[in-house]
UniProtKB/TrEMBL annotation:
It comes from Immersiella caudata. Pfam families: 3HCDH, 3HCDH_N. Residues 33-214 form the 3-hydroxyacyl-CoA dehydrogenase NAD binding domain. This is 3-hydroxyacyl-CoA dehydrogenase. Belongs to the 3-hydroxyacyl-CoA dehydrogenase family. GO terms for biological process: fatty acid metabolic process.
Length: 317
């Protein structure tokens, strides 16, 4: 009886929510993609979308310098693919022509799907989503590549009136793994307001990009980082407390679990600042001491030893 009442309530609620919601783009209707942020992740996402899903991509970055750097890097990757005969010169030219650089969000007025990949700063993402909700067509899916910020909070930034879900229901996370052209996995995360149509469209579009989607709840760290970061953090604690040397730790995990690199080398590749930021989110959002960031990790970030990107981490580069 209770479940019948609950089911009726859900039907009534979803009918009421539909009063405000609009029909989002289904995968087949995604004819033009927008990507915001042409850094490490945004560029990879734009490149793979152009290459695999064959869609024109408007690549927006507030910095012309980042755009130039990103496009030069794309050129390099395409040239490498041609030289290794993975693609023809003609295919490389087609992909290049599909990438349309821009410096203003206003150029996203005709896209069907947008993926945001700006730095992991909550206020920056909230501001961008409130603007995307106004600029992008009403059917467009608004996706974020955040590593750790709540999708529900990002979705809430698209509306002044929480009862109006017409914008927040089309917000979702497509959390690509780094480097995007190589890693097959992508996490798809719904916020509380995300509609099923939006979730399905995000899964379908990522599959069109050749990715394998895993659906996760909107919970601190989602799935990938909830599992990966405590593993890396524990490896750093083992090093800090003398349980094993750097090389012993990386060797046993590499040779014992058949992964391409050990946890300390992987931390260097991800960036120790990023690892620390995610551990802090896990720790503060759950209040669980098992997620406390290691002292050595904090110290290394304070020293500016961020891993590969700064030339020094657990290894020298
Ligand atoms: P990045 O610093 O390499 O790139 C961010 C880009 O955003 C820069 O080019 C910057 O100029 C641009 N930008 C800054 N403010 C902007 C604005 N207002 N409008 C438009 N562009 C703006 O960062 P990244 O490593 O590509 O990370 C981007 C997002 O992806 C973050 O949310 C991060 O947590 C997430 N992520 C990163 C990784 C990783 O391993 N690096 C993996 C998965 C997810």
């Amino acid at each position: 009886m209770v479940s019948i009442i609950a089911a009726r309530h859900v039907v009534r609620l979803s009918r009421r929510m539909r009063l405000f919601s609009t029909t989002v783009a289904r995968d087949a209707e995604v004819k033009r993609l927008g990507v915001v942020g042409a850094g490490q992740m945004g560029l990879g996402i734009a490149l793979v979308a152009a290459q695999k899903a064959n869609v024109p991509v408007t690549l927006v970055d507030s910095s012309q310098k980042s755009l130039d750097k990103g496009l030069a890097f794309a050129e390099k990757l395409l040239a490498k693919d041609v030289s290794k005969q993975r693609i023809t010169q003609e295919q490389a030219d087609t992909v290049r022509d599909l990438l349309k650089p821009a410096t203003s969000l206003d150029s996203l007025g005709e896209i069907d799907f947008v993926i945001e990949a700006v730095p992991e700063i909550p206020e920056l993402k909230f501001d961008i989503f409130s603007k995307l909700a106004q600029i992008c067509p009403k059917h467009a899916i608004l996706a974020t590549n955040t590593s750790s910020i709540s999708i529900t909070r990002i979705a809430a930034a698209t509306t002044q009136d929480p009862r109006d879900t017409s914008n927040s229901s089309r917000v979702v996370s497509t959390h690509f793994m780094n480097p995007v052209p190589i890693q097959k996995g992508v996490e798809i995360i719904s916020g509380l307001q995300t509609s099923k149509e939006t979730l399905d469209a995000a899964v379908a579009f990522c599959e069109r990009m050749g990715k394998i989607a895993s659906v996760s709840a909107d919970s601190p760290g989602f799935l990938a980082n909830r599992i990966l970061m405590p593993y890396i953090n524990e490896a750093i604690i083992c090093l800090d407390t003398g349980v094993g040397s750097r090389d012993s730790i990386d060797a046993i995990m590499k040779n014992g679990t058949n992964v391409p690199m050990g946890p300390l080398q992987l931390a260097d590749f991800i960036g120790l600042d990023t690892c620390l930021a995610i551990m802090k989110v896990l720790h503060t959002e759950t209040g669980d001491s098992k997620y406390r960031p290691s002292v050595l990790l904090r110290n290394m970030v304070d020293a500016g030893w961020l891993g590969k990107k700064s030339g020094k981490g657990f290894y020298d580069y």
